[in-house]
């Protein structure tokens, strides 16, 4: 997994992606994977992410997931 993350970051740096864009994309991928892993169960996904369920719901809306 680390190699994949490093490759993704390297691509973003080469592509001159701004940090805020990279953080948003990382958060989008991270949350999407957490939701898939937990079959869309937001309560369980939020617990595993270490955030409140309402925070997850707000992030899902903000990231258009």
Describe what is shown at a glance.
This protein is an all-alpha fold and 65 residues long. The protein has helices at 2-14, 19-37, 42-49, 53-62.
Features:
mainly alpha; 65 residues; 4 helices
Give your account of this protein's structure:
With about 60 residues, the protein is mainly α. Helices cover about 75% and strands about 0% of the residues. It has four helices and no strands. The longest helix has 19 residues. The two termini are about 25 Å apart. The mean pLDDT is about 90.
Question: In which range does the helix fraction lie?
Answer: over 70%
Beta-strand fraction estimate: under 5%
Principal-axes geometry comes out as elongated
Low-confidence stretches: none
**Class by alpha and beta content:** mainly alpha
Query: How are helices and strands ordered from N to C?
Result: HHHH
Q: Mind telling me the C-alpha Rg? A: 13 Å
- Count of separate DSSP helical elements: 4
Mean pLDDT: 92
Q: What gap, in angstroms, lies between the N and C termini?
A: 23 Å
Strands, total number: 0
The main β sheet shows up as: none
